[in-house]
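Protocol step 4 of 6: structure prediction from sequence.
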Amino acid sequence: MPEPLLAVRGLEAWYGESHVLHGMEFEVPAGEIVTLLGRNGAGKTTTLKSVMGILGKRRGSVVCAGVETIALASDRIARLGVAYCPEERGIFASLSVAENLTLPPVLRKGAMGADEIRAMFPNLVERSASQGTKLSGGEQQMLAIARILRTGATLLLLDEPTEGLAPVIVQQIGRLLRQLREQGFTVLLVEQNFHFASGVADRHYVVENGRVVDCVPRGRADSASLQAYLGV
């Protein structure tokens, strides 16, 4: 079996004195969409931040593209091809859509160019002169994803990309994620929307109290046990 693009072993993390992750264990194979599912407070977002290296205190093992990153700063992790899209999206209010898109640096070869971005996100082309925070919620989410694609990242960490969006926009996000997978991207997706996740992901890790309690392949994603974990 090939080595996974991301392998997390015994990951622990803290917010100050609060111990949030208690030995997270999971793998993300290259070219797959993998979800972390769980209730609020389970530790899903903390896991993404820990993988990206933006939490002050963590220990364990996080291997990205064959490199142990547990002691690396976030900028060095980014140069391995990892990018994080937070739930709040991080759109710069004082910049236009076009300026938001050109802000992040190209960190690796293979970064998505302007023409590719325009083809994948036609709505952003129409709104290129608009202030970033004047966009709808769905357009802001598209902008946040488009922006990290310019860095050359191949492993995308997406935190709740469908949160608060209308069903038609959620469908668009789903089509976008499937398109990215077809182009060879790997996605680690934090979601509470089980129905959305079950339609896009190759496998699901269920998170409770800062640890993985089950791994559910796509074919078993409608199981009663998974629904019981999530309370849906």
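Step 5 (inspection) to follow. DSSP finds nine helices and ten strands in the chain.
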